[in-house]
């Protein structure tokens, strides 16, 4: 048990504090242990206090070069000991994806800072969670790391909502994820972008891979460079300018207008056929069943996905090179699948690194 707790607690990387003072200046005030200038600038950009439009976003999260960031922002009430501060953000960086866990913990840290006006208490709580996985306080609430199972974080979004928005077109998203393509999602509201993007990896549940998620990206050089190093991803933007950046996506989702566009260069790999229609119908039928929960819908899609992989394995062979499965293209041809199905299975084998080099 102790080993489990230790493994869980070593996930946090750092904590920071950003303040907006009564003159409207936004400053990086404090952090523990330390941070790089690049990461500090990124977090200042993500924190809504530097935003011109003055909208307050209580909680945002995202990823940059395998570091997850979680930012909770609050307005300072007149009753607080913080007299020269109008708003502040608590920033947590971590190795894991778990928005609910870190939202709960940053809220407790916010309450502490409002009460004491000094980062000392926050640092004590951070170290307690880092070493023991727990911080307890009478007035600010308690936090227990192991209450937040990662599977719960994976299942927190709603696949049913996605299907109610996009219907049969959801199969485009499923196909793009299966083929490890680059998906860009746009909506002017960050909350809508985050809710939608965090749910997409669940359509390929067999991988349980949320490292592909970049739920809050700005069109800045360092962020785009980091993003373009990833082979496939789901990236969220609030700047419509991203729609003109066709170098960034294979599939573009305009969430505000409920439109999905496949980029010209991705059209060949993403050709839809009978198999896709079957998958699309299964997704829609399952999602529209009022008796089924989101996790049951994910399970239904996962069963169908496994069926496709079993099919793929039947015309693959074990290579002499370390015994991994590689596609036997002749065997695939002999099955005389419809062209779109054959094309999809070939590209799926490529995505799974099953092609002979």
From TrEMBL:
InterPro entries found in the cross-reference section: FAM45, Tripartite_DENN
Location of this chain's protein in the cell: Late endosome
CC per GO annotation: late endosome
Keyword annotations of the record: Endosome, Guanine-nucleotide releasing factor
One GO MF term: small GTPase binding
Name this protein carries in UniProt: DENN domain containing 10
Gene source species: Rhinolophus ferrumequinum (Greater horseshoe bat)
Taxonomy, superkingdom: Eukaryota
PANTHER family: DENN DOMAIN-CONTAINING PROTEIN 10-RELATED, PROTEIN FAM45A-RELATED
Family to which the UniProt record says this protein belongs: Belongs to the DENND10 family.
GO biological process, any: regulation of early endosome to late endosome transport
Residue ranges occupied by any UDENN domain in the UniProt entry: 1-357
Gene that produces this protein: DENND10
